[in-house]
Batch of 3 targets.
Target 1
Amino acid sequence: MHLTAEQERMLEGEEGEAVRKGMELIVALGDIYGAERLIPVISVQVSGVSYKTIGDAGLEFIEDYARTMKKDAKKVRVKTTMNPAGMDLEKWTKMGVDRKFAEKQLRIFNAYTSMGIEPSLTCTPYYFVSEPKFGEHIAWAESSAVSYANSVIGARTNREGGPSALASAITGLTAEYGLHLEENRKADIIIDVGFEPDSYMYAALGNHLGALLSKMGKKVPYFKGINPGDDEMKALGAAMAATGSIALYHVENTTPEWKNAVNDKLERITISEEEIREHIKGMDRDCEPELIAIGCPHASEKELRRVAELVKGKKKKEGKELWISVSRAVAERNPDAVRIIEDFGGLVLRDTCMVVSPIEKRFHSTAVNSGKAAYYLPKESFCGQCVRFRPLEELINMAVEGET
Amino acid sequence: MRLYGRKISGGKAEGDVIIEPGAVSFLGGVDPEEGIIVDSSNQVSGQRIAGKVFAFSTGKGSTVGSYVIYRMKKAGTAPAAIINESAETIVASGAIISGIPMIDHIDISLLRNCDTVIVNADEAYVEMPGVVMKEAITTVIKKGEKVLILKRSEKVGSCKGRWAGVSGHIEEGDEGLESRVMKEVEEETRMNVRIVRSGEPILARDRSIIWKIHPFLAEAGSNEEPEIDWEHTKYRWISPEEVYDFNTVPKLDMVMKNLGIL
């Protein structure tokens, strides 16, 4: 790989140990994946924030790294945002999170903010916090945000891990390989969708397709015959990223790069509505949910307002919890919707979600409309939930007094 | 001798080798407090990797695995060095943030459990004291679409009873590899052949020797049949794809691949 004189100096440690370590990691990953050079990024999203997911191992690393940066008198070099934590930083007692967990979670949060990382705590930084533009190079972790940034916005990022994203934040650089290169952004399969899905069906479609494409060895699907809005694309992409590591997809007539994404030699498959209905049977288990959780990825303004509309003037059923997870930015811009939902008895949570908070300590069954959450929540070693996967309107009805 | 690979994470360390032929997940697959493999799908499940030179094919699983490696390093339960056939992001990141020497692009089938080796990641090699390299040729003779394999007798020094090409050590006084090829073909088969091409050399481990095998493809006339000597008990003409049906000497399939016939 070719490094500039300045990059060589950074790698030699002239800017301190934290930058040297970051460079070492980026250069090694670049070598592994055949990059020829490093390129600057305009923003970074770091993952590895929830204490539940990274545990004491991650906490130790992040605190050590923060100390090294402090010693070097360094902060992150580009705009850097962070993934959701394991709790709402203010409402954690209402969530049933214990004090020990909360203390360790705050240590992780403080270590990241001491590096100069913005306290965004969301998986949807593209809502008002950090919006990349078409063609811009970024280094984002968080698979659903990576999918959205690449596919819906047309920014360029690989699927970074916690350490590599942090390395990009500190150096402002990433290695040029994978989705940073035009030739790797072309579709490798065409998906004919034989019906017009609603938002629930988009989540199911993504959950089904991610696993299917991964088995077929496909990475970049191109959809025909659908007309999704931004919320539907968020749901579709998040689910495909969870079940199959899909980091980029194209939708004909909709996403910014669809025009040059296909050629006539590509393999084509058709997905029918029956196939998705059949797949839902495996996602939607037979159990009575204790928790109804919406907002994976974090709900948009439109989704938050829709929930408010559905619960307005109604009363929450005894023994049911309703959580809506959003970014701080979305909550702050919609105080009315937040008040309506909280008057109903629901919790509008910022900073966290049902997947990365320790819900298994309190609940056994959760109802969701997210194809990503429906993949992670049943995992025994992670959330251990019996999952109901139903459309939004049905979820709300489950929580409303007088509804069956 | 030294095996050269690619530097992933700098540094130098010495230790006994522990080999896992499969992929390793550090989150859930390793007990970081004890430094023991707990993934039952790994061959080395139940064994300690702390302080060892841990050689495995590649990493897999959750990206949190990088932090688990870091925790092991701080707890003193991490491997002294890591060798991979092909590095990926999780283990590479873990090795780098933890300062554990790591190299990849090493054929781990050339290592043996309990070999004591030195990993010099800065220079990208594994030093194997006590292991020596010797050179040999192996010749695949082709007749039409078929190739000749021979079953090694009980009298030969190594790989008794296994199927092979025409092989021999390179000896002092050999005037180039091709003259050795012609001598061995003459001794072992008495056939008239013409050398077509050679392939990239292949390394194979046999106790304390690593053989550097130079593959050759030779062609025999349609009427030629081998007359075998004491070194072999049988021969067969087979299609190259049939090589997988025979108990062959190590890497005979690789020899055929490097000769472009498989």
Target 2
Amino acid sequence: MPKKTEDRSERSRRDFLKLAVTAAPAAAAAAATGGEAEASVEAPSSLGMQKTEHVRKYLDSARF
Amino acid sequence: MTQVPHSQSAPRIVEEESARADFYEFMSGLLAHPPSDLLLNNIGSLDPAEGEIGSAIETLKRLAARADSQSASREFHDLFIGVGRGELMPFGSYYMTGFLNEKPLAKLRQDMMTLRIEREQNVYEPEDNIATLFEIMAGLIRGRFGEPASVAMQRDFFNRHVAPWAHHFFSDLETAKNSVLYAPIGTLGRLFMEIEREAFRMEGVPS
């Protein structure tokens, strides 16, 4: 894997992301940490999947 | 790679990547369950930037200021739960095949095993829920399942399990009959998927 090319594409990816995501949703992140933080710290090695109540209700009704 | 001295709880990743993880988590939280009053309140105090994402956040902000957890929860119910079923089915398998629990879910479970990710024991829903997939993406970026995943690994997971349907799902969410608060959330998701697709394309690792 030619290192040089990777560096270049990595840089353009970073520049692109910087423009695209960094500015706006940095704020969104702040909003998200409201109640989510503890949940995600709980189980670092297994997926701390959020209990998606809608799915559970759906599955109950569909008897999966 | 293995010489990293016992890594701190949060492995170091660059700012752009952590912004992506933030965004995935933000969206995942909104899609897993209805927003709490606290979250709505926090959204109401956002300071949106310029551009398409900024204007979607602006709209979300305005709607969040008028919503409360009850109205949000009703909307969430109508969209995703419903009586029998909600207006939308936020599952990869459903979008890709027309049915729940089909081959895409089996493929996802296989890949999760390879990545050594498993769902918690008391969770029974299929893993191909959009909220779960976004949580996995955030986890891969942050290294919640070990080392932060390389961009190539993230891209492969994204291309197999997210890209084929998420954009379509978010477009549906944008225009769903029951979407009010969730309309700009759909817009945000759609725009974010476009950004991700474009950024992974730039990464330039041959597949």
Target 3
Amino acid sequence: MTPNALDMLRAMARIRAFETALSERKDHGFQLLSSGEEAVAVGLASALTERDQLLTGGRSIGPAIARGVDPRAVMAELLGKTAGVNGGRAGRGHLSDPASGFFGAHAVVGGNISIAAGVALAKQMDGDGGIVAILFGDGACGAGALHETLNIAAKWKLPLLFVCNNNQWSVSTSREDALAPARLSDLGKTFGLPSRTIDGLDVEAVAAALGEAAQSVRRGEGPAFVECISIRLRSHSTTARETRKRDELAELRTRCPIRRQIARLGLDDDAVEALERDAADFAAAALAFAEASPYPSAAEVLTDVG
Amino acid sequence: MLDSAVVATKKMFFREAIAKAVREEMALNDRIMVMGQDVGSFGGSYREFDGLFGEFGAERVRDMPVAENASIGIGAGAAAAGYRPLVTITYMDFLMLGFDPLINYAAKLRYKTAGGLTAPLVVKTTAGAQGQGVAHSQCIEAWLMSVPGLTVVAPSTPADAYGLMKTALRADGPVVYIDHKRLFPAPGEVPVLESLVPFGLAAVRRAGTDVTITAHSFMVRMALEAAETLESEGISCEVIDLRSLAPLDMPAIAQSVARTGALVTLEEGQLTSGVGAEVAARLFETTGHRRWARVGALPAPVSSNPVLEAACVPDARRVAEAVHKLLAR
């Protein structure tokens, strides 16, 4: 067992506990959770350095925490509190903390992809050696913004890593029903990008594949495309109806990336309990911090508009 | 008051005034870059970037593929990351393809990050009818005026094209800069020395006492033509060039209407939820109702057919008719 493998397991467990604690609150509002997709977030974060920036779609909580944004400020943000990372006005769809390497989420599906290419262009022109990763779902693969951006990023050899977290569902529409390519990584191939499809439930495989892809981007070889096939253990959002059958969901739970990593590392009961305690403490500390912070005053509605 | 300060000027076409502004600002600030279709060695669809590619190189003057959405998105992302892109969208109709990055991202970035990030992005586009048909002629600036966080300017003279572009390239937030196909052929005096035109300041193009006509972009010419005709009939028109649509210079409009007592709002775009409706509503909120008529396009698409195009968009004759009708009330 490498220490890194255990760290990644701990990071995944923390995200799960964090999102679970959030969703159990009555005032959680509208949230997009990433249960079943933690290995993608954590594996991706392991491939990035301090000089890099990560941008995501709206399913941003796991990636932001994995990237190292202060979880207390994330929780406060999600609950609309002033101690939030954006003063409580961005919410899960628009979290942003460039100082932590999390340039931001943008909750329009596909909308952050061209933005990420702009950040990558700035990095290329600055020549600071950093790269940009853009994380998007399979839903974004039907959007024109991805195709326009792939083309330009390829032509300009932008330092941009395209990471598709294919959780196989756009709300209630399956990836099979929505998208024509046999593999979503074929979209990258079309534009000449090194492109792979990998198991997004295996955190070590994700870390290895994205680490390798990030290296090629960092060497100036232009963008790369990695499709990580994951699962969505919960409905689209905390307010969306679950459309899948119970037995289907039960089967999905047997493929949980956290359980898989626990089994791989052969943790005994004590170790699992310690893992769960650590995750629960992590979530509780974030909640306590958020609780203590006030909501913004209504007078702030007109500040920082333009 | 009339712009009367004496400054050294040179006669320039609109496109030359734009190029002068962009050239000066690019020389001052190496974070400024131009991105758009045919902006490189071609020099822009209207040659408004003539020479910049040779002077500043392919890194700072970038030809884009036909990808308006990604062009504005990449511009917005680079802006958020510290650059100052000027993205050109050949026709305003195509701006719709880039509304997501412009409106959902750039215009909201400062707000959603509580001031942490801004998007100093200029999107330059060309509006107006000139024989190019239903999807190459529209004036949709009124749509943009309702977006919090977005600045919208539409110069009518080469001097303002120059001064507003310079201000736009120094602004902190996204600016939509709108020029007009029918403004390009006519030259005008442009300050030789560096000068800026601030946002939110209208200009009185003609002083008058009987009626105030507000307009922007090419329609300022139509207003001035109508004012000329009306003067020979004994009607004195004050013509206000709005220049900046968001923010609007309401004090200038209010002062003028307080003297004339009558308002005609003129625009090339649609009247419904239009610039004129906004000007009038904002004015009457503070002054109470005043005599008002609005002139704009008929509620139809703008055809490339010359008869139908001319029938759709306003001209000086329609402005004069509206003034007559209003003053006869």
